[in-house]
Amino acid sequence: MDCSLLKHPATLIWALLMLATALSWGLGADSASSGNGVMGLTALLMAIAFIKVRFVIQYFMEVRHAPLALRLVCDGWAVLVCGAILVLVWMSPAA
Amino acid sequence: MSRSKNHVPGEVGIWIFILGDMVIFGLFFLVYVYYRGLDIELYRQSQLQLNQHYGALNTLLLLASSWFVVMGVEKARQGLGQKAAPFFASALACGLGFSAVKVVEYGEKLAADITITSNDFFMYYYIFTGLHFLHVVIGMGVLTFMILKTRAKHFQSNDMIMVESGASFWHLVDLLWIVLFPLLYLMP
């Protein structure tokens, strides 16, 4: 393989995304055994997921090179959806 | 090449589709979280019947496929269509891996008599993962087209817009799964 590919910014991003997935996976396995801290754990899992989403949008979909309007729409979507999920969990009787 | 601060990767039309899909799936996520909150024990018990390892493995496969696609786009942009094609083929192989895991997973659920009508959790599980899987299948068709296009001797830089459109769609498939995985498999 061509070494320049390993130095590409997307390669570092990809490694971080893999690590973040492993972290979520571990956190999810813990959640099966304990019923405590629902809100905290949900917030952590969603924060990890939407940070991953942002990395994919910015670096893989190359939105960081796109016009401001598209960057704002993508970031707005991530903030709104993540925020609304957390509010719904927080308001639910189980939290 | 052509990566100023104002470059939209792919056709404007594909971005309208991508953003529309993001809005629809965003609404799906919210509906699911709302109803989950109303009957949390049922959702938790049902969720325990899912195999988290399948969900995680599929996340890793899609992330790997996305990396291959980024590298393929990079090569194609340098005018090296022939070198781009193997990256797109590797991404396609990851997509096939995802599909195989999904088929095994659905097979196990159906063998245990868990269907779309079992309960609300499994209704959402089958609808969301099924619609996502439809995106994976369409995406694999797009990747095949990208392989053929970049392998062709006459690959030109004006074919780039098609390659970028396909790549953006494939990343959308990855992005949606990144949220579906914790929502369906991991949430406490």
Structure described in brief:
Chain A has 95 residues and is mainly α. Chain A is 80% helix and 0% strand. Chain A is built from 4 helices and no strands.
Question: Would you give an account of this structure?
Answer:
- Chain A is an all-alpha fold.
- Chain A has one domain (3-91).
- In chain A, 80% of the residues lie in helices and 0% in strands.
- Chain A contains four helices and no strands.
- Chain A has helices at residues 3-6, 9-33, 38-60, 68-91.
- In chain A, α2 packs antiparallel against α3 and α3 (38-60) runs antiparallel to α4 (68-91).
- The N and C termini of chain A lie far apart (49 Å).
- The mean pLDDT of chain A is 88.
- Chain B has 188 residues and is mostly helical.
- Chain B has a single domain, classed as Cytochrome c oxidase, subunit III, four-helix bundle (Four Helix Bundle (Hemerythrin (Met), subunit A)), CATH 1.20.120.80.
- Helices cover 80% and strands 0% of the residues of chain B.
- Chain B has helices spanning 12-38, 40-47, 52-77, 81-111, 120-151, 160-186.
- Chain B is elongated, with a radius of gyration of 18 Å.
- The relative contact order of chain B is 0.18.
- The model of chain B has no long low-confidence stretch (mean pLDDT 94).
- The interface between A and B is large, with 53 and 49 residues.
